[in-house]
Amino acid sequence: MTCSSKSVTTDNSIGEISNTQDAELVDILENLEKESDNIANVSSVNSESRLRGSFCSDTIFNLSHKPLSDAEIKVLEKGLDFAPIQRRINEPELKNDFQEFCRRMRIKWYFRNELSTNVTERSIFTPKSSWKPPIGHPNLEVYLSQIKKELYETIKRPLNYSNLSGEEWKAVRLLADDKSIVIKKADKGSCIVVWDREDYVSEANQQLKDMNVYTKVCFRESVLSGMVEKSNRYFNHLKRDGFITEKELKYFTFEYKKATNLGKMYLLPKIHKRLYNVPGRPVISNCGTPTEKVSEFLDHQLKPIMQNSWSYIKDTGDFLKKLKEIPSVTEKSLLVTADVVGLYPSIPHDAGLQALHETLEKRTNKIIPTNTLVEMAEFVLKNNYFEFDGEVFQ
């Protein structure tokens, strides 16, 4: 690799324990640490067949056979959300965007006397509207006309400015066309990882071999249509019983042709664990799947319950705030942290659903019956089909 390597030192020791503390507890912690390391080693591919990566810069980590040029590193350092300025304006797209802007401005004028300042009155589950309001106030129309004139004039003028140099544009194309690598954001931190595709697929396949978590299936297209019908049936019953409105029903109902996607699995490289034999955190995107709408509805219903839990931590700031509320720690106290390997995949479905049922039964406001929400959760858990590298799993 052409990029330089930075040495990284890790300390896996438990730390010094004062003589006054129980030696047996120390032994227990040491055994737990060794067991955790063994589990991590078993869950990954043999380290002898895996790559050792190196840092090309503070934010770029190369875990591939591909030597990265200075231009490629510079482009990657801009981040995966960076948007290059195109040399040519997409005229149809620009005109469509402007028409949508005009529509929104006229809607605001049309409903100017009916806008509510109380956002809690508005449902977040509203289908996208294509309604076009009538022509607005003359002053508004003059304003829109002037913007249109200036905007369309820019289409005729060539762009002489780019936020990428010629070398950087070439680097973008080379990175995009190179099928031997996968570019992902690191699981923790702000690093961008260039991962060898073969190594990436090997790590994913090794995880997918765990029959306690994943099952390879022969998927039939007819299963999707049945899942869509069942999802729609849930929301039709909720509307019938008065739990959602007609507009919300329209939002949650989708046609079969709009919900034919399987979930997509990808990995986020966990380089904070180690810089060789790098494990990946599996993430499954369910966008566009038949379970997406039910999942969205459940998330809305269950999130307030989760946030009221005594163990809930919102973010780092919330964690620091809770630490300050803890009484003073004595010298004989032992601070311990624990990490569960594969937490979510390790939760048995039946036990998880039972725990959900018990928690929902404690609600003071049971507008939607507990059994209905648990049944919807079971539907999501038992129909979480996804694909990776051309194969389907559950």
Describe this structure in words.
This protein is an alpha/beta fold and 394 residues long. It has two domains: 23-50 and 200-326 and 335-393, no CATH class; 91-156, no CATH class. 43% of the residues lie in helices and 9% in strands. It has helices at 23-43, 70-77, 91-110, 138-156, 166-177, 197-208, 221-240, 246-252, 292-307, 316-324, 349-361, 370-381, and strands spanning 54-55, 60-63, 181-185, 192-196, 263-269, 280-285, 386-388, 391-393. It is globular. The relative contact order is 0.12. Residues 4-21 and 38-47 have low confidence and may be disordered.
Briefly say what this structure is.
By secondary structure, the chain is an alpha/beta fold.
Protein topology:
Blueprint: H1 23-43, E1 54-55, E2 60-63, H2 70-77, H3 91-110, H4 138-156, H5 166-177, E3 181-185, E4 192-196, H6 197-208, H7 221-240, H8 246-252, E5 263-269, E6 280-285, H9 292-307, H10 316-324, H11 349-361, H12 370-381, E7 386-388, E8 391-393
Parallel strand pairs: 2-4, 5-7
Antiparallel strand pairs: 1-2, 3-4, 5-6, 7-8
Helix pairs in contact: 2-5, 3-4, 7-8, 9-12, 11-12
Features:
394 residues; alpha/beta; 4-stranded mixed β-sheet
Tally of contiguous helical segments: 12
According to DSSP, the number of beta strands is: 8
Helix content: 40-55%
Question: Strand order across the biggest sheet?
Answer: 1-2-4-3
Shape: globular
Strand content: 5-15%
Largest sheet: 4 strands, mixed
User: What is the alpha-carbon Rg in Å?
Assistant: 27 Å
Q: Low-confidence parts lasting 5 or more residues at pLDDT below 50?
A: 4-21, 38-47
Helix/sheet category: alpha/beta
